[in-house]
């Protein structure tokens, strides 16, 4: 919940500021289509001020003792935890996910911050054997500097804390631009950090409906040394191009097209329960969402029936929210219509729900083939396409036949198969038999067109560090 002071504003150098020319943009509730807030539409000047504030705060923040930085981050995590229900309600209003999911996301964001806070104490360097008897060599970890973060709307809080945690732990200061569809959750996160006593300028927030202008401004500013982006591959590519001019460091967490491989030795009912959880979470609007569900013919009937039972038990509007907007709904409809026209069958769901809001029911498609749109593009909706397979030897190649490489899910009781398949899958993350995907200690991230860089774990913090090589002659 926003205070009156923070309402719809940018946070710059510890002050809540409006856009200098008074420009705002409107935030909508996707469940009703109603306008719910006006938010400052930050332009080049406001973004520049945010970079000024981050640059001014950098020397003090990086110079703090590790336990002092960790203490402030822990306090921010406590504030997020205490406000989880109210921030969750804000998220539900602007993003549409059910309150329980939204509140859990805030609590998980706090966990990520806590983990990163602890990592502050382990920013070790290295001592390397010298080149001669009187030479000493050290590697000294140093923060990259001012970081610009750009986050998507699908996880409006956790995508922010996944960047803030490691950046702040490393000693960087941050200018963050949230998605224009979900700025209110971001403002609520910034309020929690302010209440925790984070020094002014360490975390600056610039809401804007002009993302390209924000990107242009931070890319052109030499004080910004790294850009960390989560969003579509298309925008990621553009940022990679633009980063070349000033040779900025980048982390890009992009789209996914996750395969699921259910082998004949797996328990199809347990697999279906887990696939339903990850597929229908956030109405399927997740980069890790299972998109191509390859199920061996021997277990396909049991798997599909169980998946349909789970899908039918979900009540849209209660257990699952709407899609984020009309364009998202239209894309899901187009994918399902294409699949049905090419011979797939809707075991359950398949047609949008009439009425206000952008609701699409949990849908299970059977008889899906690799040429259908659902198998070629990221659907970003609650559609589970089941593809039966016979040839165990060929299914990994089919799973790899995508430009993306974020997540793959495997179900098997065979250890040899687990290891062979995991090695052959071209994805940054492989989870077997329901292993959790995004705990704070794990390095989340992709390969190929899903991007590069890792968020979480020690590798996540390393992404915000430079290692200075120091060579000293004693002679
Ligand atoms: P998007 O790329 O349209 O937007 C993401 C962010 O980029 C938003 O903040 C947006 O304002 C900003 N943006 C848009 N145009 C920009 C431009 N020209 N320059 C700079 N910034 C710009 O993506 P989306 O539709 O909001 O999010 C969904 C996508 O994000 C999906 O492809 C999904 O797979 C991906 N995603 C990836 C991960 C991951 O960790 N790999 C996590 C969540 C979402």
Automatic annotation (TrEMBL):
Signal sequence interval, chain numbering: none
Alphabetical keyword list: Oxidoreductase
InterPro entries: Ald_DH/histidinol_DH, Ald_DH_C, Ald_DH_N, Aldehyde_DH_dom, Aldehyde_DH_Superfamily
GO BP terms, alphabetized: gamma-aminobutyric acid catabolic process
GO molecular function: succinate-semialdehyde dehydrogenase (NAD+) activity
Family listed: Belongs to the aldehyde dehydrogenase family.
Originating organism: Nonomuraea zeae
Record's protein name: NAD-dependent succinate-semialdehyde dehydrogenase
Occurrences of domain Aldehyde dehydrogenase (ranges): 19-469
Pfam families registered for this protein in UniProt: Aldedh
Residue spans crossing the bilayer: none
């Amino acid at each position: 919940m926003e205070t009156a002071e923070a309402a719809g504003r940018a946070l710059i150098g510890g002050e809540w500021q409006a856009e200098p020319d008074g420009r705002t943009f409107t935030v909508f509730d996707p469940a009703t289509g109603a306008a719910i807030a006006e938010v400052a539409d930050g332009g080049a000047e406001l973004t520049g001020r945010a970079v000024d504030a981050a640059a001014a705060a950098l020397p003090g923040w990086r110079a703090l003792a590790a336990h002092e930085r960790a203490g402030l981050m822990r306090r921010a995590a406590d504030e997020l935890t205490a406000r989880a229900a109210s921030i969750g309600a804000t998220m539900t209003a602007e993003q549409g996910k059910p309150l329980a999911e939204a509140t859990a996301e805030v609590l998980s964001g706090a966990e990520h911050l806590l983990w990163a806070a602890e990592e502050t104490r382990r920013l070790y360097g290295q001592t390397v054997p010298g080149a001669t008897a009187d030479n000493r060599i050290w590697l000294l970890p140093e923060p990259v500097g001012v970081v610009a973060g750009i986050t998507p709307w699908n996880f409006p809080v956790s995508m922010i804390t996944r960047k803030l945690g490691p950046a702040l732990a490393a000693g960087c200061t941050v200018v963050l631009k949230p998605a224009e569809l979900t700025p209110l959750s971001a403002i609520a996160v910034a309020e929690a950090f302010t209440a925790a006593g984070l020094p002014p300028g360490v975390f600056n927030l610039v809401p804007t409906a002009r993302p390209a202008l924000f990107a242009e401004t931070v890319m052109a500013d030499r004080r910004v040394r790294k850009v960390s982006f989560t969003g579509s591959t298309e925008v990621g590519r553009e940022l990679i191009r633009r980063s070349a001019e000033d040779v900025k460091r980048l982390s890009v967490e992009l789209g996914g097209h996750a395969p699921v491989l259910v082998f004949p030795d797996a328990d199809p009912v347990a697999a279906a329960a887990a696939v339903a959880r990850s597929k229908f979470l956030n109405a399927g609007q997740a980069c890790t969402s299972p998109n191509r569900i390859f199920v061996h013919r021997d277990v396909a009937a049991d798997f599909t029936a169980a998946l349909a039972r789970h899908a039918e038990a979900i009540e849209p509007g209660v257990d699952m929210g709407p899609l984020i907007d009309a364009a998202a709904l239209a894309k899901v409809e187009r994918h399902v219509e294409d699949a049905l026209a090419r011979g797939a069958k809707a075991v359950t769901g398949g047609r949008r729900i009439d009425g206000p809001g952008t609701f699409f029911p949990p849908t299970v498609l059977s008889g899906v083939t690799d040429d259908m749109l659902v198998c070629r593009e990221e659907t970003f909706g609650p559609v589970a396409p089941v593809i039966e397979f016979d040839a165990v030897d060929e299914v990994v190649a089919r799973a790899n036949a995508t430009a993306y490489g974020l997540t793959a899910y495997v179900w098997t009781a065979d250890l040899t198969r687990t290891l062979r398949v995991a090695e052959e899958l071209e994805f940054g993350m492989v989870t077997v038999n329901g292993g959790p995907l995004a705990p704070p200690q794990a390095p989340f991230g992709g390969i190929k067109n899903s991007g590069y860089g890792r968020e979480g774990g020690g590798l996540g913090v390393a992404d915000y560090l430079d290692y200075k090589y120091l060579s000293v002659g004693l002679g």
